[in-house]
């Protein structure tokens, strides 16, 4: 008769747990390496002034909490505006890549900038919860601020257009009823 070897029931469980742990460690290291590579690539937007202002205020002592909250809202509004622009231009960038007009490095830089901006929004949510626990509406409020700023910019552009029209024609632009 063949000799039976006794294997503990824990052996397969130990094997599976070691494999899962190795996979988790690899995934974390891979993700952090990818994020580091993304952070090292040149970004589409040069500098985020509201972010710099927020961190300068945060390092300053005796800053009123309302000022920190408004700074983080300005930072979030800027990032949300950037996310809107990324989403707006993503299809065009993919089309340009597909037609060979831009290289893969430019497209990867574009996507990397988008991912980093989305990560910044997550960081903003964490910072907001540190400022005021359970402040869940920070991104919604920042989105409203970004939309209001976009509308204000368009209204200003309309005013400039009306002034230019008046200078060229000598007549005021008729308002539509």
TrEMBL record:
Sorted UniProt keywords: Membrane, Transmembrane, Transmembrane helix
Membrane-crossing segments per the record: 6-27
InterPro entries the UniProt entry points to: Sec66
GO cellular component, one term: Sec62/Sec63 complex
One GO biological process term: post-translational protein targeting to membrane, translocation
Pfam families, A to Z: Sec66
Superkingdom: Eukaryota
Record-given protein name: Sec63 complex subunit
Organism: Starmerella bacillaris
């Amino acid at each position: 008769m063949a000799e039976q070897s006794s294997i503990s029931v824990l052996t397969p469980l130990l094997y599976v747990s070691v494999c899962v742990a190795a996979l988790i460690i690899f995934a974390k290291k891979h993700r952090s390496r990818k994020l580091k590579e993304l952070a090292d690539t040149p970004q589409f937007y040069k500098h985020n002034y509201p972010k710099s202002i927020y961190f300068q205020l945060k390092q300053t002592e005796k800053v009123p909490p309302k000022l920190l909250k408004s700074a983080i809202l300005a930072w979030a509004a800027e990032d949300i505006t950037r996310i809107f622009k990324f989403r707006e231009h993503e299809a065009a960038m993919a089309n340009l890549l597909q037609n060979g007009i831009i290289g893969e490095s430019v497209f990867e830089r574009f996507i990397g900038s988008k991912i980093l901006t989305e990560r910044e929004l997550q960081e903003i949510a964490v910072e907001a919860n540190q400022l005021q626990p359970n402040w869940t509406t920070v991104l919604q409020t920042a989105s409203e601020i970004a939309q209001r700023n976009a509308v204000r910019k368009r209204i200003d552009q309309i005013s400039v257009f009306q002034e230019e029209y008046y200078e060229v024609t000598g007549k005021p632009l008729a308002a539509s009823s």
